[in-house]
Amino acid sequence: MKYGYFDDSQREYVITRPDTPKPWINYLGVDSFFGIISNTGGGYCFYRDAKLRRLTRYRYNNIPLDSNGRYFYIKDQASGEYWSATWQPVRKELDKYECRHGLGYTKIAASYSSIETEVLYTVPKGETLELHQVKITNSGNTVRQLSLFSFVEFCLWDASEDDRNFQRNLNIGEVEVEGSTIYHKTEYRERRNHYAYYHVNEAATAYTTDRFAFTGTYGSLEKPEAVETGELDKQIASGWSPVASHQIDVTLEPGESKTLVFVLGYAENEPEKKWQSPGIINKEVAHSSIKRFSTPESVEQAMAEIQSEWNKLLAPYLIKSGDERLDRMVNIWNPYQCMVTFNMSRSASYYESGVGRGMGFRDSNQDLLGFVHQVPERARERIIDIASTQLLDGGAYHQYQPLTKRGNADIGGNFNDDPLWLILGVGGYIRETGDIEILDEKVDFENESSLAAPLLDHLDRSFTFTLNNLGPHGLPLIGRADWNDCLNLNCFSSEPGESFQTTANQEGRTAESLMIAGLFVYAAKEYAEILRTLGKEDKAESVDAAAAKMVETIDVHGREPEWFLRAYDYFGNKVGSPECEDGKIYIESQGWCVMAGCGHQDGFARKALDATEKHLGTAHGLVLQHPPYADYHLNLGEVSSYPPGYKENGGIFCHNNPWIMIAEAMLGNGEKAYDYYKRIAPAFREDVSEVHGQEPYVYAQMIAGKAAARHGEAKNSWLTGTAAWNYVAITQHILGIRPGYEGLIIDPSLPADMGKVQIERVFRGCTYKITLQPAASGASPSIIVDGEVTHSNVITPQPEKTLSVLATY
Q1: Is residue 238 part of a domain?
Q2: What string of DSSP letters covers 85-105?
Q3: Which segments constitute the Glycosyl hydrolase 94 supersandwich domain (predicted)?
Q4: Which value, in Å, is the radius of gyration of the alpha carbons in the chain?
Q5: Nearest 10 degrees: CA dihedral of 134, 140, 143, 145?
Q6: If we measure between CA atoms, which residue out of 164, 134, 163 comes closest to residue 146?
Q7: Which residue range(s) make up the domain with 742?
Q8: Residue where a domain stops, chosen among 288, 311, 334
Q9: 347 within domain boundaries
Q10: For all residues of the chain together, what is the average pLDDT?
């Protein structure tokens, strides 16, 4: 069952009914101001940091789930009927509904009782505001007298305080009204220099700024008292909960339209202008922004700039394969999700409140791999930000806040895979750009300028951190956890009935990770290439030697008869072994050990991947482990706290499925790699939307596994490393066009029946027009560049030129 369709020509997903299985959302903004918008107008917005600069309030775990947003009510003055231009929150059955989620904008069109509305939501490039354009048309044959009511609810800036410190919050709300602009100035009294505002380019008939005045004490957004009565009361909020609602009375002749432009903005004054006297705000920034966006023509210009920006962002990698589902994933939706994930990390969605998580050290380094070709200059900036939070011993704060760029001490570090991801992030950036000079950049440790050292030093400490933290088998210590945050193997209870602790065993028997072992070998290869690019051959050889020693250790202590072991727990017990009652095989170590090159020579890698398909494979993707844990195991930590089939306990983690795709591609099994790709790619799952539940245009973090009650149901969409890794898997390993230190590598691993694929790849200023096609029967694969056969699959870029490449596979 479908709830809409892809409009590839407009790069939009069109939702044709509002009651999607879950809210289907989109993101607004590409710079510093961001918004989340659902297909029914729900969501919220913020400046840079969803925790510390939240503009509008959102209620999580609410009924209905998608509550609070940027809403517009239409009321017929003659009949007294009213409805929502976005269906929510009134939810009156509309005569027509259509939501178009595009790249950086959303349009919601509706029709009721011969009144048509179209609401456009977007964030202009380089601005700190949202535009809400509302067009109302009378498609009937009689004059209509209408009232439009806008509604947003302000958050008290720090979203974590907003939802808990009520004895303070319900006394500090302050607003100011100037013409058709409602200013939210709470916190300005504390000599802060920021405020919010909501403006409409029309003289308002009335307004209110008090939530209770809008909804009524016992009312709701579904049936707000002010809309029911048909008149706002011009009330100024004093404490309690500030909102912004305009009333615009409109008379429309048959066929006549009216367009209104609303500006929801964030303003931050220069320090010397930030404070005049208590409660008095300097409005220069707001006035300037309002003036720039006061007409429909200015909105049209903003949209043209947004579309031009996305043309540029998507241009570096475009394909034409003959399969529209593959093309729309590679050309549009996967890189779009990669950019959104770069901006948000894991912080702000309908599944993360924006309060508990900031930017992830591990997360952001992985995200780099998916977007670096789109905005390399911002990737460089992000690398410096990430590395600046690194600890002196090479470890890392697991997360940091984007506004302060300070490590999150509440979460701390001790996720022992974190440091290695910096090597992969930096390597991915250098391979794409050739900017080896970044390694000379002086970068802080722990955000202390006095501790600054060249970025190369950060990489060296990342590498040696693992070598300095090896366990009794010579494998890397897992610490609090590795990539699998829920695999907490240093848990123990000293006495029956006592709560568990996480610590190091005094006898040295601490938990070890095969996943980190494989990741270490893989990262070591990247690091050695970086060193050789710098001419540091001796250092590169020592890195190679450490990697080779780890491979030997994996061979001795990390192999079971048919697959790679996952870990050793605190007590030295095996995890992910046939000897285990549950959790006999895990996906992560199969992917990373094979990606690292382990077991390639003697066939063990093939055996491990065959076992992965046999035990972990389902029609909806590969589950994380099998069998899932039926009971809670203290020595395993959180991983066994989930019911079987969900999340880390036997769920299908779309994030780690690409590691198996890449591993299969490396072994030359393109057919299986592409099969795995199609099982979880959203566009290929559109026909099972009633099962999948989440958006059919972006990846979800998790799909319920085979042991779950609703196998195939997706959860936690949008913000996930799934986006970057699936993009890397399909573009760099299955299609096989990937950046290298010396040039663009052409190394496809495609199914035999794929046929011809055309790819345009812009790399270091050179445009490669690549055709991949099956080799003639009995012929060997070959690569022809500008009509000449080449014996290397690394094609050196020629800036400002176009190269024609024909590669057979």
Answers
A1: yes
A2: TBSBTT-PPPSEEEEEEETTE
A3: 11-272
A4: 28
A5: -40
A6: 134
A7: 738-808
A8: 311
A9: no
A10: 93
